[in-house]
Specification:
The protein is mainly alpha-helical. It has ten helices and three strands, in the order αααααβααββααα. A three-stranded antiparallel beta sheet has the order 1-3-2. β2 and β3 form a beta hairpin. α4 packs across α8. The protein starts with a helix and ends with a helix.
Amino acid sequence: MELNLIIDILSELDTFQKAQSGNQTSLEDFRLYLNQKAYESETPRNLTQKFGLEVFDLENEIAKQVIMLGRYSKHLIKKSLENHPDLVNEDFTYLFRLMDYPSLTKMQLIEKNAHEKQTGIEIIKRLVRNGLLVESPDENDKRSTRIAVTEKGKKVFTESMQDITMVSKIMCGKLDQDEKENLLVSLKKLNTFHHTVYTNLRNEDPKKLLKMVENEG
């Protein structure tokens, strides 16, 4: 058993070194190579076949990749905002989005970030408490409260933007320019569809949404 393991390791090491084209490598490089290979070999088909499930393999894999990218981006954003204590978790998306407008109602800002009402309210409260946003009565609708970015908020936006831009660059990994542009086209198309669903059909049964997708296809 141990001999077979050593043979497998040496075989993997040989494959790894051949792929490096003479570049100097380290043990850490080899570990990352093995991790990447293991990740790429994963497939939802293994699990679905085991339990005899009928699934959409391609769509499932796309959904998995999107979900994982979201989690990786949260980790990177959290690290990049460590020098900006007034911005926590997804607070920066509210601040950045509001920079495009003189003011918005609370619900307008929450919907632009595709959050549940309670989650959005908590984020807005935190930003107001930290002095980045300010509330004011809505002159046209007494039931609504408008919010705007303060001078402190604008300063924090400017200071944090460089770090967020760096995260954006990292998130695109090693994609070349054409790959980035093609990915952006697909992502915009997906987000346009889901924005419509979120805005107009968020309470619909998923089965009805699936029929809508299949009819459009």
